[in-house]
Amino acid sequence: MLPNDFELQDDSSVAPEYLDFEMDEPLEGEGVMFAVGEDGELAQIEPTMMEFESCEDEHGRNLAEDMDDSDLRKIAYDIKEWVDADIQARKDWHDRLADGMRLVGIVNDPETDPTKESSYRLVRNCNLPLLAEALVQFQARAITELVPPGGPVKTVVLGEKTEETEQQAERVKDYMNYDLMVKNQDYYPETDAMLFMLGLEGSQFKKIYRDSLSETNVSRHVRGEDFIAPYGTKSLKSAARYTHQIQISQNDMKKRQKNGEYRDVQLVKPVEGGSYTQKIKDAREKTQGEEMQVGLPDDVDHTVWETHCDYDLPRELADPDGIGRPYRISMDMESMEILSIYRNWEENDPNMEKEVMFTHYPFIPADGFYSYGFLHLIGGLSQAATGLLKTILLGASFSAVRGGFKSREAKIKDNVQMEFGKWIDTDMTADELKKAFFEPNFKEPGDSLFKCLGLLIESAQRFTSTNENMVGDASNTGPVGTTVALIEQGSKVFSGNHKRLHYAQGQEFQLLAKLHGRHLPEEGYPYNVPGASRQILRTDFDGRVDVIPVSDPNIFSSTQRIAIAQTMRQMAAEKPGMYKDKVVERRMLEAMRVPDPDSFLLDRDKVRRRDPITENMCMMNGIPVRAVPDQDHDSHFAVHQVELQRIEGDENPAMKQLLPAFYAHIAEHTSYAMRNKYAQAMGIDLPPIELGKEASPDEDIPDIDPMIDNKLSQLAAMAISKLPPPQPSPASEEMQQKAQQLEQLGLQLAEQAKQLEAAEKVLKSEGEKLNQAKIYVDQKSVELNNEKALMDMEKRASKVEIDIEKQVAKAEKQAVKVEKDAALKDIEMAKKDSEIASLKRVSQNKRDLDSAVGKVSGAIEKKSREDQRAEIKRERETQRAAIKLEREKLKKRESKTKAKK
C-alpha cells in the first residue's frame, strides 16, 4: 500500500520500498519518489501533497501559503489588537457568565473557613434551584418543538407547483432530515445542550460549515463566550468583524495542517489557562466533577481565533481602491501564527458580498448584540432567594442544635461532648454547672423570612413559568372562539421566544442547504428512508425549494397544538359540510405526533368491492365498506335492511354501536340507486362520483358549466315527476314516529321552560323587594348608631376640656422651672462650643496631614507601576528578539538542508 502523504503523478512513479532491485547507496530523506524515464534511468521527482478539498480552485485556496512572513505578522498583530479590544469591551458580560453556574446551583460557593462546623457546610452547599427549574422546563419544551422525532426540516415549493417540484421538495426534505437525524449524530445532542445554555446565558450560535476532517456538512454549537463580536454590532451580516474562538486538540491540528487546511508551520506548545474563557471553563469542569491534571501537556488544546472580517490584504492581493474585502483569517493564539486566509464570498459574486456561516439564536433581545437570558433577568431573584434560604437554615440549625459559652474555670476534664442517653460524671455541683455555662437565646426563623422567601419564589416562577396548558386562568368550557382566544392569549410570551428560535433555525437550514448544493456529488448521493431507498441530486438544491423548520412559530407546546386541533374538530362537528373531515383528523394525528398519520386514515378508493352478505359481516366486525355505482343497489338494500332490523331489535348495547355504520352504508346504496334511476329516466350517463378522492387546498376545481347545470336540472325534475313516489321503509316510519314524539316532548319542555321563566321573574321581583327592605333597615340602623356615637363624643369632649385645663396649669409651673434650667445650660453650652471649635481645628490639621501623605504615597506607587511596566516591556522585547533569532537560525538550517539535498 502506498503512503497516504503523497500521490503518484503517473503510472510509472514508484516509491523506493517497492523497487524490484537493490540500490548501492541509501537514499536520504523520507518519502522520496522516483520515476523511470525514457532512457531507462531513475529520476527523483518531487512529492505532491494531497490538497485540502476547498483548494481545488484558485478562489478557494489558502492565501496565506504564498504570503511573506512580514505581511503575515502584520495581519496577526492586527487580529490580536482587534480581538483583545473586543474581549475587553464585553469583560463584565463575560464575568457574569462565569458566575452563572453558581447561581444555577450546580457549583457551590467557595468555603472561606474549613474549620466551620457542619451547619455552616450544610448552608454553604445549599442553593435554591429557581434558575435550574426554569432552564430545564424551557429546554424540555423547546427541544420537542424544534427537533421532532420525524426530523426538523420541511420544504415549501417556491412558485408554481408541479409534479416535478413537489417530488424535488420531498427529496430535499427527506435527505436533510436523514442528514441531521441519522448521518449527523451530533446534531440532536448539540442542539439540546445549546437550548440549556441559551436559556441561561441568552445568546448562542450555530456554525454551519464543511468539515475538512470528516468531509461532511455539519452544524455545530458555538457557545456565547466563544463568539467574540465588537461593541455596537447589530447583526452578523452588517458586522465589520467577529471572531470564533476554537479549541482544537493537538492531534487534530496536525491533521488540519497535513491536509492543507492550515499552514504547516511550527506552533508553540499550548499551556493550560491560556484562553480568556478559562474562568468559565473551570466553572463548567467543576459542575462535572472534573479538574485538569498537572503533567498532561498533550491534553491541552490549541486556541485558534477564526476572524471573519473586512481586510485589505497587502501587495498583489490588495484591492486597487483600498477597500477591505471579506476574508476568513485563522490564527493560533499562543504562537500568533496565521494559519489560513480564505476568501469569504461566493466565487462568481461581482459584489463580493460576505458569506455568513453562523446563525445567532437569541433568547430575549437586549440593547446590544448579545441577548438576555434567565441569568440576567432573574439572577438577582435567585441569589436573594438562596441567601434567604441559607439564613433560614442557619437560624433553624442554631435553634435546634444550640450552643453557647463555657467558663474557663469549669472543673471539666478534656473536651466532653454530650451523647444521647448517657450521663457524664463531673466534679462540679449543679449550681456550679449553671454558672459555668451560658446559652444565648437562639430564636427560630420568623414568619417574615418565610413570607419574603415565598414572595421571591413566586415572582421568579411567575416570570419563568411555562405552563403546559396555555389557556390562562379562565375556564375553557365556553364557545369555540373563546377557547381559541384563551389559547392565543396564554401562549403570547412563549410563542415570542419560539418565533425567534424558529427564525434562527430557518436561517440555519438555509445555510446547510446551500452547502449541500455545493458539495453533493454530481451523480447523486443515495440514502435510505423508512420503507424506501432514494437518491438526492445536487440540482435539487437549485433554489426552487425553500427549506423551513417543521415547527410552528405560533405554537410552543404539544398540549397547545392538541388543544387547537381539538378545537378544529369541535368546529367541524358543529358545522358539518364546511370542513374536510379527513384533513381535520389528519391535523389531529399530526398534533399528537403520531408517526405516518395517513396509514390510520381510510382511503375509500382502496376499499374492496364486496357482496351484500360480506358487507354485513365486515360492518359487524368494524371493517370499512363502500358502495360501487354499478352494483345492484336494491338487492343490497334488501339484504342490509334485514340485518339492520335484527340489530335494532337486539337489546345488547354493543350491537347498538353498529347502527351508524349500517345507516351510512344503506344511505350510500340508496343515493346511488336513486341517481341511477334519474340517469335512466333522463336517458343520459351522469359523470362518475369520486367520493374517495380529496382535492388539495391549493387545487382549483372548475365549476360545472351553467348551461349544462340548468339542462341537467330540468331533465332531472322531469324524470323525478315520472317516477313513482318512494315507499317509506318500516324503519323510516318508526323513525318518523319517534321524531313526532320527540317534537311533542320538546313542545312540552318548552312550555315548562316558559312557566319556569315566569316563576323566576316573580321570585326575582320578590327578591328585589326584600333587598330594598333590607337596605331601609340598614339605613335606620346606621342613623341610630350615629346618634348614639354623637352623644358619647359630647361626654368625652367635656371630660377632655377639664383634663386640658389641669394640664395647662401644670405646664405653666413647669415652664418657670425650665426657664431657670435653660439659663444654666446656656452657660455650659458656651463652654462646650469653645471646646468643639478647638477639636475641629485639630481634626482639620490631621486631615491636611493625611492628604499630603496620601499624595506622596500615590506618587511613589505610580512610579513603582511605571518601573514594573518598563521592566515587563524590556523582557517582552528580549523574548521577541530571542524568538526572531531562533527563527532566523531555523531558516538558515532549512536552507542548508535544502542545499545539501
How would you summarize what this structure contains?
The protein is α+β, with helices and mostly antiparallel strands and 901 residues long.
Describe what you observe in this structure.
Helix 13 runs antiparallel to helix 15 and helix 18 runs antiparallel to helix 20. The chain is an alpha+beta fold. The protein has 22 helices and 19 strands. The two termini are 26 Å apart. Among the domains are: 45 residues, no CATH class; 92 residues. The radius of gyration is 45 Å and the shape is flat. It is 53% helix and 10% strand.
Secondary structure layout:
Layout: E1 6-7, E2 13-14, E3 33-36, E4 42-45, E5 48-49, H1 69-89, H2 91-98, H3 100-104, H4 118-124, H5 130-146, E6 153-157, H6 163-183, H7 187-201, E7 203-211, E8 216-222, E9 227-228, E10 241-248, H8 250-258, H9 278-287, E11 302-311, E12 325-332, E13 337-343, E14 358-362, H10 374-401, E15 405-406, H11 430-436, E16 437-438, H12 447-464, H13 480-490, H14 492-519, E17 525-529, E18 532-536, E19 545-549, H15 558-574, H16 581-591, H17 612-620, H18 633-649, H19 653-656, H20 659-682, H21 706-722, H22 730-900
Distance separating the two termini? 26 Å
In one word, what is the shape?
flat
The largest sheet has its strands arranged as: 9-10-11-12-13
Q: How many H/I helical runs?
A: 22
Largest sheet: 5 strands, antiparallel
What portion of residues belong to β-strands? 5-15%
